[in-house]
Amino acid sequence: MDVTVGDAGVCKRKLTITIPREDVDKKLDERFTELQREAQVPGFRPGHAPRRLVEKRFREAVTEEVRTALAAESFQKALEEQKLNVIGEPDFGPDAIEMPDDGPMTLTVELEVRPEFEVPDYAGIPIDVERKAVDEKDVEHAIEHAREEHAPLELVPEGKGAKKKDYIAADLVIRAGEEKVVDRQDARFQVDEIMVEGIPLADVPKILTGAKVGETKTATVRIPDDVAREDLRGKEAEVSIAVRELRRPVDLDDEGLLKAVGYESMDALKGSIRRQLEGQADLDNRRRQEEAVRAWLLEHVPMELPEDLAKRHADRLLGRTLVNLQYRGAPVAEIENRLDEIRSASAAQSARDLKLTFILDRIASKEKVEVTDAEVDARVRFIAAQYGRRADRVREDMQAKGTLESLRGQIQEDKVIRMLLDKAKVAGEPEKPAASAADAQKPQEASEPQAQSDAPETT
Question: pLDDT tens across 288-298, in order?
Answer without folding.
Answer: 999 999 999 99
